[in-house]
Structure formats: C-alpha cells, structure tokens
Amino acid sequence: MEYRVVCKNFEQLTAYELYDSLRLRHEVFVLEQNCMAPDMDNMDQHCHHLLLYGRDELLGYARLFAPGLHFPEMSLGRVVSSPNARGIGVGKQLMEEAMKELYRLYGDGPIRIAAQVYARLFYEKLGFVAEGEEYMLDGIQHIDMVRPPRN
C-alpha cells in the first residue's frame, strides 16, 4: 500500500487534518481503550503532527515533541493506528516516519516515549529499550522507553 505522509506544526494543519487526527485519537483512546483522561491536553499547539494517509483515509497518527517539551529528549506520543489498518504494517510504517521526522526536526539525539506496556515488544523491535519501572498513566500500564541517538 502507498502512504501519504503529512507532518505539520499545529498552525499548519488544515481543519480536515485536525479533525481526522482528533477523531482517530477519540476512536481508539476513548472508545476502544476506554481511557477517560483528557486527550486534548493543551500540548497539541506546541507539537508537530504526523499523519499517515492511505487512499484518503487517516491510517495512523503521532504527535512529535521537541526536546524539553515533554521529556528532556525529543519524544513522540499519541501513537495510534486505525482499527481498519491493523495487521498490515501501518504501525511500523508510522513509527519509522515519525522517527525520521524527529531526526529531521531536532537532530540525531535519543528519543524517549511513554509506551503502553502491551506494545513493549513492538517498540523494542524498533530499537527502543525499556527504562525504569512500569507505572499507571490514564488507567493504562506504561513504561518509559528510549531509543539511543542515531549514529
């Protein structure tokens, strides 16, 4: 499948792109995962947003943080793939594109994420290493993971 990658800061997003991203986040985090924490947390305005489209449908989304905004390292969060696109490699493609954009925007430093524990193996296959103890965040078990600097 061919993908169209969009990476923009908040002000550059079209109304349609913003709606697509918030709809997908709501569909997965609120409805599917039953996470009742506020998704719109006043961080979107400070981030870059990566949207992965296939045939004009949003298949994946990630929010990109500059170093010092969420963690001391550059970071990404709200990583989500559409239920309609699971099992076909969209998650891996989304993460590869997100990391590529982080490196383009902020250099070759380490990337830190707060990963849902169930996805730990997925992130390990992408070069992330678990760091510290598991913790509860918004009703879901998480663990911090770091991908070493790119050489």
Can you characterise this structure?
The chain has 151 residues and is α+β, with helices and mostly antiparallel strands. The model has no long low-confidence stretch (mean pLDDT 92). The protein contains 3 helices and 7 strands, in the order E-H-E-E-E-H-E-H-E-E. The N and C termini lie far apart (30 Å). The chain has helices at 15-32, 90-106, 120-125; strands spanning 4-9, 48-54, 57-65, 74-81, 111-116, 129-137, 140-147. The protein has a 7-stranded mixed beta sheet with strand order 1-2-3-4-5-7-6, sandwiched between helices.
Using only C-alpha atoms, the radius of gyration works out to 14 Å
CATH class label of the domain at 4-107: Alpha Beta
Number of strands: 7
Largest sheet data: 7 strands, mixed
Shape: globular
CATH topology of the domain at 4-107: Aminopeptidase
Structural class: alpha+beta
CATH structural architecture of the domain at 4-107:
3-Layer(aba) Sandwich
Distance between the termini: 30 Å
Strand order across the largest sheet: 1-2-3-4-5-7-6
* CATH-assigned homologous superfamily of the domain at 4-107: Gcn5-related N-acetyltransferase (GNAT)
Q: Taking all residues together, what is the mean pLDDT?
A: 92
Give, in order, the helices and strands. Answer: EHEEEHEHEE
**Residues in β-strands, percent:** 35-45%
Helix content: 25-40%
